[in-house]
Structure formats: C-alpha cells, structure tokens
Amino acid sequence: MHVALRVTLVSLAASTFASSARSDEELQRRYLLSRGDENWAWLRTPHATSDFFDPIKYLRLTERREDIFLSIGGETREYLEFFQNELWGSTGYVDNFSWLQRYMLHAELRLTRYVRLFVQLKSGIEVGRLGGPRPVDEDLLDANQAFVDVDAVPGRTLDDLPHLTLRIGRQEMAYGSGRLIDVRDGPVNVRFSYDGFRIISRFSVMRVDAFLVRPDLTKPGVFDDGWDATQGFWGVWATLNVPRVLVDAYYLGLDRQHAVYEKGMGHELRHTVGARVGVHAGRLLYLEVEGAYQLGRFLRGDISAWMVVFMGALRLPQIVLDPEIALGVGAASGDENPSRATLNTFNTLFPTGMYFGLIGGSGSPNHISPRLALALHLSRSVLFRVEVLAFWRESLNDGIYNVPGFLLRPGAGNPARYVGAQLEPYLTWDIDRHFSLNGTVGYFWAGDFFRLSQPGRNVTYGAAWASYRF
Q1: How many CB atoms lie within 10 A of CB 456?
Q2: What percent of the chain has pLDDT over 70?
Q3: 52, 79, 295, 467 — which has fewest CB within 10 A?
C-alpha cells in the first residue's frame, strides 16, 4: 500500500531532503493540493519579487481595513490518456484514447480576521473515450468547494494560521499520505469533496481535526452534485510535527448502506483506528511506517481487517544526477473465509486516485505489494522517476478491488495468489511555478490470477498532460 506519486521518494525528498531551506517567500507562493488552504494575505506588504498574478491574489476591498480582501486563483489541466487492454481486457475495447479536460476557478473573500468565504468551481470534460466517460471523468460545472471558515481563535497576524477554525460547507479533505482520505487527484479528472462540518485546531506542533461529513456524488450535469445520503463519514485526525519526526494518529468512522464485497452486499458500519510515523534519520534518509485496524459490523457479522506499510527513502547527492531510491512493502487484508459471517476485507475509504500509479487497476484491499522506485534529477527543473511494483492477493478467498474499493474480479475458487507486476516511468518538467509538463508510459504484466480468471491480457498505459496554476 504505497500511494504511488503522492508518497514516492520524490515527494519525500522534496520536503525532507532539500539541500538548502527555501526562502519564506518561496514557501508562501506555493500552490497547495487543496487551494482553500492557501493564504495570500502576505502580499499586502512590500515583497522581494513579483508575479503576473499578484494583483488578483490580494485585492484590498477597503483602504481602512487590510483584513478585508479578495483573492482569486485557478488551474487547468489537459490530460491525454491511452489504454490498451484496460482492466486486463474486460472493457471490450482493445485500444482506447481519451482527452480529459479539467478547469477550476476559485475565490476567497476575507471579511474580517474571524470570517472568510471560499468558493471553487470545477468543470471536467471527457472527449473521445469509447464507451463514454467513466463516472469520475465528467462533471460539466459544479461547486468543488463552497465553505465558510469561522476562526474562533485567529492567528497573531493575517499571515499566521488560525488556532481554531470551524469550517462549514462543501470542502476537500486530505490527510497523511492520502491512503485513507484524499482529494482523488491523479488520473481522475473530477476531484472529490465532502459536505459537512470540520473543526481544525492548531497549537504549537500539534494539529487536531474533527469532522462530520457526507461524501459528494459526482454527476455529469450542471450544478447537480449533492451529498450521498447513503453514507456518513466522521473522525478525528491528530498530527504531531517536531524536528525529524512526524506522527499521525486517527479514528475514522464510516456508515455505508450499500457496501459491496465478494462476501456480499449490504449495510456496513466500520471503524478505523491507526497511526503513521515518519522519521528523518539524518538529512539523507527517511523512514515511514503506517498501520491501521478496522472493526465494526457488515450484514450479520463482525468486521476485522488490517493494513500495514513500511517504506524507506535514501538520497545520494554526491552521485551524478542526485539519485533517490525508495523501497517499501504494503499489505491489506482480504476476506479469510466466505462461509463465516466475519468480513476481513480492508476498506481504504476515500484514498488518492493514484494509489498504485496511473494505470489504476487493482487497489489496496486484499493485497501484498513490494515496491522499488528510483528518481534522477536531469536538471533543476526536469525529473525522471521509475517505479516497479508487484502484486499478490493476501487471501485466496477474496477477489481484487479497484482503488475506490469496488470489487473488480471475484477470487473464490481461484488458487493463484500472484496478480501481476507493473512498471511505470515518469518524466516531469516544471517549467516555472505555474506551468508543468508530464508524461508516462506504463505496462502491467498479468499474473497467474488472470490466467485463471479471463480476460487476463497485459495492459499498456500512456499519458501526457500539461498543468497550469495561478
């Protein structure tokens, strides 16, 4: 269970192994995964450099009050995708091309030091795909986020993060490494959000969030998205960040009326408790471990499921091209006995869309997967990375599931444990802070499991995409 791309050696190195600390202004100008977490109030004071978009990042609305302002931003992504034998040939199309378009525009209105409004519109368009768009490919126009923040305990200045915030409305959430809660980025065209309430508290080196939400349903029309009334999601996520050590501890609850596993379909009440620890063992080495246990009820039986991840990343700056190497292994439980009422299949809840790379075949439930990754810095702005993964079923009595956790292929009666292997190289060119170009060509070798469960063709995947943010 690795969350490829998001939790690769590359992302770890970016935050952990930086050879020199970036300036405060460089950090302030970063575009974050969730744009609602950005703070551009610092532009109210003179700064060392300027950007073309600075005039719309801090628009003062009154001369007398610097805490009343408007900030505007957005992004676009053009994504060309090619599959040969998608889902191992089960779609009925040998070759399939698609052009995925994502357009997003947001505005933050700061009313006082205590209240701000944030609205983000999204538009996802798919062109050319045989069989039509997948459910996460198209959403012509809707609100991705629309919330109000009430800062009960604001920061010392406008530049500081508030100490206690109540967030109400539609919002994105991303925690930890994205293995359980994320915005569904990656090859997915339409991002994921929730409707509900969240309390965000930040004090010194500790952050604690508590939330009660319903996941949103993506619909293809105009302003027709709404929350999923069949699911309720709540939890508490605590993060401790001290020099060299980061610790996450969490409890997550899910009530789902229509859960589907190989064991059956029905009501699921699931509780997840877990922790993640990341340690900087010197400037050049990063180690991470995460584990979670799930309990609750499914149909007439109990739930008993688990997942565990180990990962290490090493940087070798003295060698040409500044190589970085990552090695890890992850596992999540599958159902042990179909004749027993107890369900052992792990539920990954709402993970990132690029869990095991961009090919997007099998997901986390019922898997054992080692992984090796290598990154090379071809220049200051060009990065090459390659990942190799292999997949086995943890239980021979359960099938394989996709990244969101839906059953792809039943496995009862199939004696093969080996699912396959995957190779994905990536090339990333960050032209500037706004514009990036990316490309990949991946291959999945179908294993014994698919030879005994046809169709089981090898999969070829290619993608090229350009992203622009402001």
Answers
A1: 18
A2: 95
A3: 52
Give the chain's end-to-end CA distance (angstroms, integer): 33
Count of structural domains, the chain: 1
Residue among 144, 150, 122 at smallest CA distance from 194: 144
Q: Tell me how far apart the alpha carbons of residues 316 and 88 are, in angstroms, rounded to a whole number.
A: 37
Q: Is 1 within a domain?
A: no
Report the alpha-carbon distance of residue 113 to residue 115 in Å, rounded: 6
Rounded Cα–Cα distance for residues 54 and 47 (Å): 11
Find the largest Cα–Cα distance for the chain: 73
Q: What is the 3-state secondary structure (H, E, C) of the chain?
A: CCCCCCCCHHHHHHHHCCCCCCCHHHHHCCCCCCHHHCCCHHHHCCCCCCCCCHHHHCEECCCCCCCCEEEEEEEEEEEEEEEECHHHHCCCCCEEEEEEEEEEEEEEEECCCCEEEEEEEEEEEEECCCCCCCCCCCEEEEEEEEEEEEEEECCCCCCCCCCEEEEEEEECCCCCCCCCECCCCCCCCCCCCEEEEEEEEEECCEEEEEEEEEEEECCCCECCCEECCCEEEEEEEEEEEECCEEEEEEEEEEEEEEEEECCEEEEEEEEEEEEEEEEECCCCEEEEEEEEEEEEEECCEEEEEEEEEEEEEEECCCCCCCCEEEEEEEEECCCCCCCCCCECCCCCCECCCCCCCCCCCCCCCCEEEEEEEEEEECCCCEEEEEEEEEEECCCCCCCEECCCCCEEECCCCCCCCEEEEEEEEEEEEECCCCEEEEEEEEEEEECHHHHCCCCCCCEEEEEEEEEEEC
Phi, psi at residue 231, to the nearest 5°?
A: -130, 140
Asked whether 455 and 91 are in contact (CB, 8 A), the reply is no
Residue 4 domain-assigned?
no
Beta strands 324-332 and 367-377, pairing class = antiparallel
Distance CA 208, CA 110 (A): 24
* Inside any domain, residue 438: yes
**So what's the pLDDT on residue 361?**
78
pLDDT digit string, tens, across residues 246-268: 999 999 999 999 999 999 999 99
Q: In terms of residue numbers, what domain contains 433?
A: 9-469
pTM listed for this prediction: 0.92
Question: pLDDT per residue over 234-250, tens digit each?
Answer: 999 999 999 999 999 99
**Phi, psi of 214, deg, nearest 5:** -120, 135
Residue 89 tokens, joined: 């040939």
What's the CATH code of the domain at 347? Answer: 2.40.160.100
* Residue range 423-467, pLDDT digits in tens: 999 999 999 999 999 999 999 999 999 999 999 999 999 999 999
Q: Which two tokens stand for residue 63?
A: 């001369």
Cis peptide before 425 (omega within 30 of 0): no
